[in-house]
Amino acid sequence: MYDFFVIGTPTGQGSKRHVGGGTMIESAKGLPAWRRAVKNNAVLARGSNAALDCPLVCVVTFYVQRPARPKFKDHPATPFDLDKLLRSTGDGLEQSGIIKNDSRIVRWEAEKVFATNVTGAHIRIAPVSSAMD
């Protein structure tokens, strides 16, 4: 099992914009930095261990910035969509080599909460056989 914290600004993946000539690019400017932060912290957590190549459970808590005037006082129903945060985070985990492929994640448990100190994500990964209940 791996358990680590990524400091950074959680950024979603999946929204594209057209820039002309049939070219589409990711619209989230912070995406490369977020993926890099996930990758770097996962590399440190993995150490010299081989990539996990089995069905996995991934539990993530995203800590996001509280807006000056949140629409919902206690819940961060704010950008980015939770599913898009999972996409960018899964790709960062795969790029780190901590998991063989993000398709190995068969169960996600995820939530967004307002950060009280730093923004980022608490990530736990374990094989399904030793799931973190």
Please tell me about this protein's structure.
With 133 residues, this protein is of the alpha+beta class. It has a single domain (2-130), classed as 60s Ribosomal Protein L30, Chain: A (2-Layer Sandwich), CATH 3.30.1330. The chain is built from 2 helices and 6 strands, in the order E-E-E-H-E-H-E-E. The protein has helices at 31-46, 82-96; strands spanning 2-7, 16-20, 23-26, 56-64, 105-114, 120-127. The strands form 2 sheets. Strands 1-6-4-5 form a 4-stranded mixed beta sheet. A two-stranded antiparallel sheet has the order 2-3. The two termini are 12 Å apart.
Strand composition percent: 25-35%
Low-pLDDT segments: none
CATH architecture: 2-Layer Sandwich
Strand order of the largest sheet: 1-6-4-5
Helix coverage percent of residues? 10-25%
Tell me the total number of β-strands: 6
Features:
133 residues, alpha+beta, 60s Ribosomal Protein L30, Chain: A, 4-stranded mixed sheet, 2 helices, 6 strands
